[in-house]
Design a protein that fits this description.
It contains nine helices and no strands. The protein is mainly alpha-helical. It has helices at about 5-20, 30-35, 40-55, 60-70, 80-95, 100-115, 120-130, 135-145, 160-165. α1 (about 5-20) packs antiparallel against α2.
């Protein structure tokens, strides 16, 4: 296993934890990263960059993933798959990593940490994702037909609540 892949595995664990426990600060992840990566300075910095990057660009990443993941709401995806997709999408959009390498790394994470179908799911979503990566989010949503917004829960929007009250 490559050293960077090991760093991505640690990042995946942090992203998974922060997704399921949002009250835990990502700042507290440094000790975990150092411990898991044997305090290797280059790997720790690489992992920290990925964690900070995904965290700071999460809204953009989620909007684009929602726009490209046909028939899938982000909140309905397996938490592991969602974290892998966020990491892969971040590497595609915001790093110099070649798109296909980012997808392959995400697939390997999905094979190791996801379900039997996770690798195919991650591959399909990220493959479609790269086709729209340079488009503005509103263009992506018009091409995919789902509005390009991350879908929250089934709660009412303010407009729906007003209509019901009339």
């Amino acid at each position: 296993m490559s050293r960077r892949r090991r760093a991505r595995e640690v990042v995946l664990q942090i992203l998974y934890q922060s997704d399921l426990n949002p009250e835990i600060s990502l700042d507290d992840s440094d000790a975990f990263v150092r411990g898991r990566l044997n305090a290797d300075p280059k790997l720790c910095e690489f992992a920290s960059e990925l964690i900070r990057g995904v965290s700071s660009h999460r809204q953009t990443i989620d909007q684009r993933l929602a726009a490209t993941a046909d028939n899938w709401r982000l909140n309905r995806m397996a938490a592991t798959d969602r974290a892998i997709l966020r990491l892969g999408a971040y590497e595609i959009l915001f790093t110099e990593m070649p798109d296909r390498v980012a997808i392959n790394e995400a697939i390997e994470l999905a094979k190791r940490f996801g379900t039997k179908q996770s690798a195919q799911f991650v591959n399909g979503v990220l493959d479609r994702f790269i086709n729209f990566k340079n488009d503005p989010v509103d263009e992506v949503s018009s091409q995919t037909g789902d509005g390009g917004q991350p879908v929250e829960t089934d709660s009412e929007t303010p407009g729906e609540a007003d209509e019901k009250n009339q």
